[in-house]
Every structure is written in C-alpha cells, then in structure tokens.
C-alpha cells in the first residue's frame, strides 16, 4: 500500500505583493497599494456597480469617463483587462 502525501499549495508571492496604482487606476480602485488579485476584484466591482458590461456581449466592457483613460479606447474585452491594468501598477 503506497502512501500519498498531500501537499498544500502556497499562494504565488508575486500575486500577493501589494502594488501601487497609477493616478488613472487610483481614481477607480483607490490610492492604496493592493495585491494584483484585489485590483482585478475592485475593477470588476466598479464595472458591475456602474453596469458597464455590454448587454449584447457580456465579455466586453464599455468604458465610462473613469475607465476610458485606463483602457485607451471605448470598449475592451474582459481578456484584455488584466493586460491593460498591469500597465498601471508599480
């Protein structure tokens, strides 16, 4: 009978490291340094609160006055979101 050891998975330190948002991103999520995972969560909270998902294609996000400078265009797909946001984190 073989014994198996259960390994607990450690969170990736790079994702948990607090990052400082640019002034453009801080207008949406606040100025405090937060981990990358929390940044994504706060942006989605903002998108849902302001009903910015495209009604025809929910994978697209329509920019409002605060998101337009962050995105650089009127609409982005949810798959582009993390790439665009990472440019605004230090």
From TrEMBL:
Gene3D superfamilies: SWIB/MDM2 domain (1.10.245.10). SUPFAM superfamilies: SWIB/MDM2 domain. Signal peptide: none annotated. It comes from the Bacteria. Pfam families: SWIB. Residues 14-90 form the DM2 domain. PROSITE patterns: SWIB_MDM2. PANTHER family: SWI/SNF-RELATED MATRIX-ASSOCIATED ACTIN-DEPENDENT REGULATOR OF CHROMATIN SUBFAMILY D. This is DNA topoisomerase III.
């Amino acid at each position: 009978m073989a014994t198996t050891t259960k390994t607990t998975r450690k969170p990736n330190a790079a994702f948990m490291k607090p990052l400082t948002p640019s002034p453009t991103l801080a207008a949406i999520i606040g100025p405090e340094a937060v981990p990358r995972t929390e940044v994504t969560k706060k942006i989605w909270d903002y998108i849902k609160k302001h009903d910015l998902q495209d009604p025809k294609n929910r994978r697209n996000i329509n920019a409002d006055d605060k998101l337009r400078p962050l995105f650089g265009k009127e609409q982005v797909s949810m798959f582009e979101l993390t790439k665009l946001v990472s440019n605004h984190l230090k």
